[in-house]
Amino acid sequence: MSNDNNIQFEIPNAANRLEEICVQGVKVRFGDNPPEAVTQRLSHELGIVKKLKHASTYLLASMLAKEARRLHYLFYFRGDITSSLISYVSGISDINPMEKKYGGINIPFETTREEYQGIEPTLEMQAGVSFLIYAQSFLARMFPEYRLISYPLPSVDMIRSLRMYITKLEELPCDEFVAEQKDDIDDADDIYKHDHFHILLIGDKQMELARYNKYYSDNGICFEEAQADSMIPKLWEYVKELDNCPEELKGLNVKTYDELLAVVSMMHSTDVFEGDLKKLLVTKELLLFEMIATRDDIFFYLKGKGLDRKDCFEIMNRVRKGRNLSAEQVEIMRKHNVDEWVYGFCNQVRYLFPKAHVAQLIRYYAFCIQSNSNLM
Q1: How far apart are CA 139 and CA 60, in angstroms?
Q2: Contact, 235 vs 241, CB < 8 A?
Q3: Over the Cα atoms of the chain, what is R_g?
Q4: Helix, strand or coil, per DSSP, at residue 122
Q5: Which residue of 46, 71, 152, 241 has the fewest CB atoms within a 10 Å radius of its CB?
Q6: Where in this chain does the record put each Bacterial DNA polymerase III alpha subunit NTPase domain (predicted)?
Q7: Which range in 35-39, 172-176, 199-203 is most confidently predicted, on average pLDDT?
């Protein structure tokens, strides 16, 4: 957040309030005696968030999540924020980022931009369409000292979107909104490099219907990643029918959650299922569980090759934004015997999804499958 107090958004005592929520939430998620690895990671994350003064962001997301649940809205947050254990234990996300032995899908906090870059996570929340309207009035009541300035974004099919700024300015600078609309920004992160705290609210008509169905009011989305393999055949059939599923992918034999996660990431990322990777997958010289499909996979792959964790992050962060590897990074990778196809892959990618976001999409697909039988 900006250091300019005129435009900084901050919730009083946010760090302590967030920690209290997490201390209670970790027992809900992991029992009265959570594993030491869980408590250590939570302490580590809270320390970084407190140091960077990002607690208000997490606390606000937790407040919105709690309110959505109270009103029986299905929802999920997207992006970096869902990669944290804080989000899981505070109710922001149902994605467990811990290792598989703790029931999670293995997303280290290091893959977020907070750990090494100190960049605050953006808030992107998808819920029923009417929650867009409710969220504005809710935030206005909760933070009367701030102004809420909202900009509707272009609608697509079942989706309505709204970017909402929380600021103490009377109005935003003219170039602020122009930057939001640019399609030719070299670095997608550039649209977030401003001082005005904002939330992207995404209204989903399908999720809106669930609010009025007792099945979802009582149960939410019935899906657990750790026990998901039994549902994969049905999910894979659903995914293959989506418009953005390439024909070549439909021929793959998807049997596990990890494999489905790889396929869904390829579908939603940009220029991933191309070149040598596409050839290797189609010819079955590379198996789905061996491939790099999310930005987190790059981190794990390079870490497995023996690269320093900071170098793993720097390369992952460069690739996810569609920037070619630097000569120095190529040299480091050569020294660690990185597979030849990986260099071409890293240079062809234009955008790569985070693992947690893909996991949220799969949960959403599970909801869509369930809704076919429970919303009719």
Answers
A1: 9
A2: no
A3: 21
A4: coil
A5: 241
A6: 17-111
A7: 35-39
Q: Measure the CA–CA gap between 165 and 151, rounded to whole angstroms.
A: 8
Return the domain boundaries, the chain.
14-211, 226-357
Q: Looking at this protein, which amino acid is placed at residue 306?
A: G
Per residue in 102-117, pLDDT (tens digit) is 999 999 998 888 888 8
Q: How far apart are CA 22 and CA 115, in angstroms?
A: 19
Q: Is 154 helix (H, G, I), strand (E, B) or coil?
A: strand
The closest alpha carbon to 29, from 73, 111, 90, belongs to 90
SS3 198: strand
Cβ-based neighbours of 123, under 8 Å, separated by 6 or more? 57, 60, 61, 77, 81, 198, 199, 200
Q: What type of residue sits at position 218?
A: D
- For 47-74, what is the mean pLDDT? 94
The pLDDT confidence band at residue 286, using thresholds 50, 70 and 90, is: low
pTM to 2 decimals? 0.86
pLDDT tens by residue, 140-151 = 999 998 888 888
Closest by CA to 108, choosing from 363, 345, 356, 359, is: 356
Structure tokens at 160: 């309505």
pLDDT digits (tens, 9 = 90+) for 182-228: 443 344 444 444 456 889 999 988 788 777 665 554 445 556 776 67
Token couple for 320: 């996810």
Nearest one of 124, 98, 116 to 318, comparing CA atoms: 116
